Amino acid sequence: MVRFITASLIILFAYTAWCQPEPKEPLGLALENFKYPFPVQYLKLRVQGQDVIMAYMDVKPVANANDKTVLLLHGKNFFGAYWERTIRFLAGQGYRVIVPDQIGFGKSSKASIIYSFQLLAEQTKHLLDSLSISTVAVVGHSMGGMLATRFTLMYPGMVSHLILENPIGLEDYKVKVPYSSIEKEYEKELKKTEAGIHKYHEAYYVVWKLEYEPYVQVQYRWTLSAEYNRLAWVNALTSHMIYTQPVVYEFQNIKRPTLLIIGQADRTSPGKEALSEEERKTVGQYPALGRKVAESITGAHLIEFENVGHIPHLESAERFQQALKDFIAQ
C-alpha cells in the first residue's frame, strides 16, 4: 500500500511538473533574441552626445516595382515587426517599404535622452537621407501618428501622402489628465505585470485573438531582463513626450493629402487610468475626434471602420490594406 501511494505521488508530481508552463525567457533590451519578419539593418547616429543605433527594415518590392516608397511608423507599445502583413501587401503592390524602430523602441538603442517628436522626425529624415529616399507616403499608427504629423509639418516636401491610423494626439491630454512626473511614470513601469500588460492590450481590440499575444509577451519578457530598469526609464521619458507635446493644435497646418483611418470602437487615451469612471467617458472618443480632426485638415479624407478598435491594420487587415492602396495610388 505504501509503495502504491509513493508511486502515485511520484506520477502526480511528474505530471504536475510536466503541465507547468515553460519559464519565459527574458528579452534583451534591443530584442536581440526576437526575430523580425525581414532583415534588420542599423543606422549609426549621434544624439545628444550619445552614440546610438536606429534599427530598420528596408523591404524591396517583390513585383511590379513602381519607384515609390512607403514609411511605416509604429506606436508606443509596439515596434516595426507588427507591420508585417502591411509590409508584405505593399511590397506585393510594387512599393519599397521602410520600417524604422524609433530610438527608445524595438531593436533600437534605449537611450536616456530628452525625447521629442521633433528629434524622432529628424532621426527618421536622417535614415531616409542615408537611403537616398526623397519622397515617401507616411503611415503613422497610434504614437506613430503624432510622429507622422510632426514629420509632415517639418518636412512637407518629402511627404506625398499622410495616412493616420487611429493616431493618439487627436486631443490634448494635459487638459483632462492630471500631470504625472517622469519619476512616477518610471515607478509605474517597474510595477508592470504580465496580467496588467495583457489587460491593456486586450482593450485595443473588439475581439481578442491569439495572434495578438506575441506583442504582450514582448513587453512582459522585457520586464524579466536584468536591465529592465533602463527600459522602464526610457518608457517614462517617451510617455512624458506624448503628454507634453500635443500636435492637435497644428493639424490645420497640414497641406499634404491626408487620410484618417479610424476604428470606431477605439477608446485609447494615455493616462486615463488616473481619471474617474465618468471622466474616462470624455477622453479617447475616436468617432468624434476623427471627424473633428478630418474637418481641420484641408481636403482630408476620413474612413471609419465599424466594430474595429485601436489597430485596424491587425484587426481588419484586408480593409486597411485596400484603403491604403486606394489612397496612395492617387
TrEMBL record:
Superkingdom per UniProt: Bacteria
InterPro entries linked: AB_hydrolase_1 (IPR000073), AB_hydrolase_fold (IPR029058), AB_hydrolase_sf (IPR050266), Epox_hydrolase-like (IPR000639)
Keyword line: Hydrolase, Signal
Protein name: Alpha/beta fold hydrolase
AB hydrolase-1 domain residues: 69-271
Native organism taxonomy: Bacteria, Pseudomonadati, Bacteroidota, Cytophagia, Cytophagales
A Pfam cross-reference name: Abhydrolase_1
Nucleotide-binding is among the record's keywords: no
Transmembrane as UniProt keyword: no
Signal peptide positions (record): 1-19
Organism per entry: Ohtaekwangia kribbensis
Single GO term (MF): hydrolase activity
